[in-house]
Amino acid sequence: MRLRDAVVAEFLGSALLLATVVGSGIMGDRLAGGNVGIALLANTLATGAGLVALIATFISISGAHFNPLVTLAEVCLGKLRWKHAGAYIAAQATGAVAGVVAAHGMFDLPLFEVSRHVRTGPSQWWSEVVASFGLLTVILNVAKRRMAFVPVAVGAYITAAYWFTASTSFANPTVTIARSFTDTFAGIRPVDAPGFIISELVGGALAVLLFRWLERSHTSSQRAPEAAGEQQTRDGGRRLREVSVDKTKKTGVRGTPRR
Description:
It is a multi-pass membrane protein. The chain is an all-alpha fold. 75% of the residues lie in helices and 0% in strands. It has a single domain, classed as Glycerol uptake facilitator protein (Up-down Bundle). It has eight helices and no strands.
């Protein structure tokens, strides 16, 4: 992996992801005629489909993180160096903001806004813990066993999490920061962003701890039969030696008798 290529992929992927999230939110809100459920459905379907396409496009170049939680998890698991992680996260953050600007430009809005969309309180924070924990759990475990399924798994999870979490599943610190620059359907007040980001980091950390525990448990369960087989082999050899010695004692004969 060339770091330059990976950074470009993370920038573009994050930009297109935020353009999808914010742009579909604006379009859905305008066409829904005040029906928030329809607007959310439009936003959900576009985001889920966009994630599948973007991850499939960039996964072979950078791993298609588009999310500091994924990048930090890779560092904690020894799959990415810290110096590379910094470049990844910088690309994700700048790309995400660029995506918001692109969406505003497409819908003839000011390129930068300060969001007034209130998203705060224990239920919102807990929702982000759950959403982030679930997202990282899906990514880490699917990537370990079925890498080709990662795009669909992530897109499907986010589509579901939009609806089962009170926060509509941001689950991404750079997404949270970028969405504070849009006063549209997808926005979040800058003052509310820190609570979301802390919750997301907590959820991500819990997912990494769970993944490590599952990996240790899985490794131990694989080693147990191997150890048992080795012990049986040693026991069998010992029994054969004991039988041979016993026969020698009874016959008084050692080795091959001479004729």
